[in-house]
Amino acid sequence: MLTRGIYTLPRAPRSQLRSVLCTSKRRLASCIQTPKVNQDRLWKDIHYTCQWGKGERWGKGENETGMSRLSLSDSDRMSRDWFVETTKSLNCNVQVDAMGNTFAVRKGRQQGPPTCAGSHLDTQPTGGRYDGILGVCAGVEMLRVLQEENIDHEYPTLSNINEEGARFPISMVSSGVWAGQIPLEKAHNLQEVGGGKQTMRQELQRIGYLGTLEANYEAMPIGAHFELHIEQGPRLEARNHKIGIVQGVQAYRWHTITVKGRDCHTGTTDFANRSDAMLTAAKMILHSHRLATKHACLASTGILTLSPGSTNTVPGTVRFSLDIRGGEDDRLMGLENQLKTDFHKIAHNEAVDDLNEGGTIGRGCTVEWVLDAPSKAIKFDKDCIQCVQDSAKELFGDEHESLTQTMISGAGHDSVFTSHRVPTSMIFVPCKDGVSHNPMEYCSPEDCANGAQVLMNAVLRYDKLRAERAG
Amino acid sequence: MLTRGIYTLPRAPRSQLRSVLCTSKRRLASCIQTPKVNQDRLWKDIHYTCQWGKGERWGKGENETGMSRLSLSDSDRMSRDWFVETTKSLNCNVQVDAMGNTFAVRKGRQQGPPTCAGSHLDTQPTGGRYDGILGVCAGVEMLRVLQEENIDHEYPTLSNINEEGARFPISMVSSGVWAGQIPLEKAHNLQEVGGGKQTMRQELQRIGYLGTLEANYEAMPIGAHFELHIEQGPRLEARNHKIGIVQGVQAYRWHTITVKGRDCHTGTTDFANRSDAMLTAAKMILHSHRLATKHACLASTGILTLSPGSTNTVPGTVRFSLDIRGGEDDRLMGLENQLKTDFHKIAHNEAVDDLNEGGTIGRGCTVEWVLDAPSKAIKFDKDCIQCVQDSAKELFGDEHESLTQTMISGAGHDSVFTSHRVPTSMIFVPCKDGVSHNPMEYCSPEDCANGAQVLMNAVLRYDKLRAERAG
């Protein structure tokens, strides 16, 4: 049980501090009294839950397999069952809404919407053991510590599961419905990608997670949302930082670009008589990269298909994805508008830098854009960010500046949707080589625990802040 | 029946000449006595045989469907049966070899290997009504005219069928075996592309075209090979030319290029930390086009696949076909060697023109080349070319210079293989918009007849030349 009071342990030198972080039984010097997460227990929870939906083996170690736990699959059901049973045993009241969002609430001293730590348990088809899973297990670890140490908090505290969205064709769809950003019916009727016939509603029902609670922020209000996640990129590791204090999520816009030329024989058609859709697409992809660099944005092509697809036929049609991202909406739209102008010019043999030079001018192509998914830039809540920052300071002491970095999330998360309705922010921890959505995804036990520690501290700080403000 | 003698019709003005070309009953001014092909009969043969293996409909007209008559299919068998029955009825001796090459020989006054007009009856899966079919039907028309007009030629004359090769994974495989360039066993064991289990030998046997004649230029020698074919490109049409006098076939080399980088998340990985295989491939494709222009060669990418293929994942692997072609072997190898040096540099962020400029230097990729199919440049036989040229002159009179063009074939044909063993050349006729390997492929009745006329005249000229040389 926690004895309240200011700890006055002398500041440990860095090497010692690390060992402190690795052992859960000792408490760190701190400006507020907080308990310590149990690193070993957290690590065990993460890998215990990974028995359901094991993916590709990539090493010989016990934990060296990836994950393939698609949303609403049988393995997903088993991991959800574990979450429900575990949180119930920790005296939580568990509720499931009509989108399968699962809320495990621990009572506080006061009435009011709970302060939440949440993420998702489902994975990519060839995913790893940390994306989402770490955030949920850290929430469970928070509940375990609160229970074990018998901590009183002001408002109810909540750990929950949202949805990753690799199986049905909208990402974070369950938090999106909760936030009123996606209609329930549309979400329920989503069919599996890859040819399956089941709808989301059918699968929710089949696995027993079509809850009776309305999937809505008004039916199930929360006070704030904190999400711990692996960074899924290389920036923390590159600078040997331990915690990313996430300020928001960059805007992105996903497009499908179709370039149409004309099929012709590669041997019999000279360059001047071609409408080469592949060559034109190659120029566009290179240009999108250069222009994104100029605008301090990102541009990526992850899908490209061409037709008819024969070595000796110049492709008449190329279709490619263009994912552009930027920290600010205006900057991103500036990039997009310039790309639209320039792609048209590239297709019509007009000058864009030197792209149409040095080769042979052909007959030109046409280009069409279809916007598949727009997402505006998100700025997280200042108070939430401050709580994360203070918690990192508490954990790292004087070294906090050299061990943390403020950053923008490059990827979307459930927190994007929650931020539409409640104060939200995120905590990032490093993942090895920045690798994610890959069986080899890895986050060290120490980094997992650091993240869980900052998560719990931030939830408790925000809880305290709410009480202070309520007077 | 042909009345021999020099025709002395006054030269027709061009517009009138055209109408002369369009009617088969009249004879054109000529320096040697040659009969006239029957345009209507040829046109009927072409479209009669297209009842077997009808493809996609692209227009409302009777003949406005494409062809899908894969080699050794049931529809291919029916068209082969037609060829055998028709040529037998024209007093030909028909022999089939172990690769299904079918030889219909009309006796000449002298013993000796026959002078041949040949092409193929099978088509691409989404092919048209003229590629190959025109050449075979023109050979049959030649036999019809010789029979009808009771023409005596010196050496036996032959019309034959080789093989296109869209179903089994080597093009022109049957003429390749005949020419001793492809081992019989290898050809017999070829399995269908696209997952079918049948071998070529099994299918030859099934449709009754596994002949007893040895598939070899020594077992079935021929004296020369002429092939009429649609151009499959736009050059004749662009200059309003009617006959292409083909000098040879350009060299080509087909490669598969594999670029390897690393999968990463499009949102969370900045440009500097990427190994973007798609961006790298785009630079290579653009560079191959520019460098081919400089070397007066061709370069084309008709297949590109990437992995893993998700909008928000930067592809770690891109594999693309690179088909390079040129009129001379040395020039083509010069291009290839420069591309190998430059692709390596592009992948490793070294300067190649400005390709790696204007963007962000990432972590680099690797690049691997695999040579799939090399084919050296072919120069056709001078005497055969001269016979084609003289025949065109005979057909067009004074206008022949403005109606013909000498050209190199961009595509491979059975004539590439026959040219290894016997004097060979080809005759091209225009096809609409240069379109081929497409249901909409079109060659006008007049152009078909012009080509068939030049083919027959060239065969008879070469027959005469052989006799003169034999003394």
TrEMBL record, chains A, B:
A Gene Ontology molecular function term of the record: hydrolase activity, acting on carbon-nitrogen (but not peptide) bonds, in linear amidines
Domain of life: Eukaryota
Listed InterPro entries: Amidase_Cbmase, Bact_exopeptidase_dim_dom, Peptidase_M20
Keywords from the named record: Hydrolase
Alphabetical list of SUPFAM superfamilies matching this protein: Bacterial exopeptidase dimerisation domain (SSF55031), Zn-dependent exopeptidases (SSF53187)
Family recorded in the similarity comment: Belongs to the peptidase M20A family.
Protein's name according to its UniProt entry: Peptidase M20 dimerisation domain-containing protein
